[in-house]
Every structure is written in structure tokens, then in C-alpha cells.
Design brief:
Strands 2, 6, 9, 10, 13, 18, 21, 24, 27 and 30 form a ten-stranded parallel β-sheet that branches. Strands 3-7-11-14-19-22-25-28-31-32 form a ten-stranded mixed β-sheet, with no helix packed on it. It is mainly beta. The N and C termini lie far apart (68 Å).
Length: 338
């Protein structure tokens, strides 16, 4: 129908094409939400049928993509649960290498991710990608029972534009040129996630983001173990646990036996958290323990058996850090334990 064709043409050219011989419109699945909005303007209505996806396995695959690598989504009345992503090699995606949104019982195991956003065109309309991204869709589709274990994530690049704060998904230029932050994380888990284990991962070379993030930009998360990870050269904190949206503090998180090296402004930042245990971690060339950021103050948090030596590298953000970033670390070069 002409209305359907008109709706398809409203999608970005990178999300749809047209086959003149078959008269088919191959369309990116990730464009479906936008397509449904365009169709609604022509009087069409979408009805959720409550699709259930369970027990799937993706393993021993090698992926290079001009979009996301592997994506599991749970939306509306649909459910995705008990999936395993294992032993994947994902290189040079334009967007998240692995993305899980909603669902329960997902495992991401033993995969190797590199070069995220590295070759993305600077004029692309919206290139946004972490190494591993897991979220609860702003609390609408919570994540329960997540395992992220034994993965390696390296070389996650950032994109931004000078006015990225007002419109971060239009006509990006690289952060290296723009000089304004737009974070891209090694592993990001946030927004209504509960029961997560993030352990034995290796994260290196994250020039414009956190090594590991847990919490939520929209809704808080809870009940997590972040343990035995090795993080090097993450230049917007090695580990960041916080809550920046509604739903109170991110709480009941154990940060144990992690090794953070050469990360700035500090090895760890806690923001709007409660009942966080920071135990037996080592921070090398990532600032002193007195520089572990806590803003606002953590409620019921415990720090013990941690060690730090060496100053953090100079902040890549120069004078453009947020206030809480500026206040979260000291420039002293001392060895401290607590």
C-alpha cells in the first residue's frame, strides 16, 4: 500500500532498502519501533501478541557489523529468557557489540569484543555503542539474573559533537576532535537490573568511558557482584556504580578483587548508592584510595582491604568535567590502604 511505502521511506536510508525485482523492502529490525510510529500517523495500529523467546544459544560465531553485533530485546508483553551468548568474536561494530534489553537469565560468556565504533563514519546520524550493553529499558522491561563472565572488551571508541548535550545523535564528529564527552563503556549494565554477576572480564583501552558501569541513568539497579575483573586504561573511571534517575539509590553491590590500572580520574566512582561493599581491590596508577569518588555520600557502604599506588593519568576532559568528577579524586601520589 502507498501508505506503508511512505512510512518506509521515512526511515533512515541505512535502515531500509528496496529491491526493484521483487518489490520487497528489506528493513533493519531495530527500525521497527520507528516504523510503527510512522505507520500510526497513517492510521495503522500495532498489537502486541506476547511473544516468548526462551532457551536460545548463539556461540562460536565471528561477527563484523555496520550496526549492533548481537541483540536480545524484550518489549511490551514479550519475554526473552534463559539465553546464552558464548565464545563469540565481535569486531568493529557500529554500535553495541552485544546488547540485551529486558528479560531474565541471560548469560554472556567467554566472548572477545574489539574495535567498537572504530570505523564508524563521522557523518553517521547516530552511532552509539558500548562493548556489552544491558539495560531494563528505563524500568519498563527489567533484567533479572544476568551473568557477564570471562569476556574481553578492548578498544571501544567514542563519538560526539560539540553540542552533543542537546542532540547527541545527529551529525557526530569524533570525541578526539570535538573535545566534549559522550561516554562509551566497556561493559554497561543499568536501569532496573537485579541479580547481576560481572566477573573475570578483561577491559582495556576505553578512551572516553567507564571500564564497568552498574546502576542506571533512568532507574536504579540492585543486587550485583562485580568481581575479579581486570581493567586498564579506562579514562572515565575504571568502575562506576551509581543512580542518576528515579527509584532511589543503586544498592547491595559487592565490588571485590578487581584490578584497575592506569584509569582516570580515579579507579572507582560511587554516586547515589547504598550498601556497597568495596573489598580487596587494587588500584595501580589510578589515584589514591582517598580519591575514590562518593557523591553524594554512600549509605551503609564498607571499604576494606583495598590498596592503591600511583597517580591517575591526567583527565582527558580538561576543564569540561562535571562538578562531581572534579571533586571525586585527588592529585596526590601516595600508597594508601583501607
Amino acid at each position: 500500500q502507498s501508505d506503508v511505502v511512505a512510512a518506509l521511506k521515512l526511515l533512515a536510508p541505512t535502515q531500509r532498502s528496496y529491491n526493484k525485482e521483487t518489490h520487497e523492502w528489506p528493513t533493519d529490525l531495530l527500525a521497527l519501533p520507528a516504523l510503527l510510529e510512522h505507520l500510526a500517523a497513517f492510521g495503522f495500529h500495532a498489537v502486541s501478541v506476547g511473544v516468548v523467546q526462551t532457551g536460545g544459544t548463539v556461540e562460536r560465531a565471528t561477527i563484523t557489523s555496520f550496526g549492533f553485533g548481537v541483540t536480545l530485546f524484550s518489549r511490551n508483553n514479550g519475554t526473552t529468557r534463559n539465553h546464552r551468548l558464548s565464545n563469540l568474536t565481535i569486531r568493529k561494530t557500529w554500535g553495541h557489540a552485544i546488547c540485551v534489553s529486558g528479560g531474565s537469565g541471560c548469560e554472556i560468556l567467554g566472548s572477545r569484543i574489539s574495535g567498537v565504533n572504530r570505523n564508524a563514519p563521522v557523518t553517521d546520524d547516530c552511532v552509539f555503542g558500548h562493548g556489552i550493553a544491558v539495560d531494563g529499558n528505563a524500568g519498563l522491561n527489567p533484567v533479572r539474573g544476568l551473568v557477564v563472565r570471562n569476556n574481553s572488551v578492548t578498544d571501544v571508541h567514542g563519538l560526539a559533537r560539540p553540542d552533543c548535550a542537546s542532540d547527541p545523535c545527529s551529525k557526530h564528529v569524533r570525541c578526539e576532535a570535538a573535545g566534549f564527552r559522550y561516554r562509551f563503556e566497556g561493559i554497561e549494565v543499568g536501569d532496573s537490573v537485579s541479580g547481576a554477576e560481572i566477573s573475570h572480564n578483561t577491559i582495556t583501552n576505553i578512551p572516553f568511558g567507564y571500564g564497568i558501569y552498574y546502576g542506571g541513568g533512568n532507574t536504579a539497579s540492585e543486587n550485583a557482584l562485580i568481581a575479579d575483573n581486570t581493567i586498564a586504561a579506562a579514562f572515565d573511571y575504571g568502575i562506576h556504580v551509581d543512580s542518576r534517575g528515579t527509584g532511589g539509590r543503586t544498592r547491595n553491590v559487592s565490588i571485590v578483587r578487581n584490578h584497575v590500572t592506569g584509569s582516570s580520574p580515579a579507579g572507582l566512582l560511587l554516586s547515589n548508592t547504598a550498601d556497597v561493599r568495596v573489598i580487596s581491590n587494587s588500584f595501580t596508577d589510578s589515584g589514591p584510595l582517598s580519591g575514590v569518588g562518593v557523591a553524594p555520600a554512600c549509605v551503609g557502604c564498607v571499604m576494606q582491604g583495598n590498596a592503591a599506588t600511583g597517580a591517575a593519568p591526567r583527565s582527558i576532559w580538561g576543564g569540561k568535567e562535571k562538578t562531581d568528577d572534579k571533586e571525586s579524586y585527588l592529585s596526590t601520589n601516595e600508597r594508601t590502604t583501607t
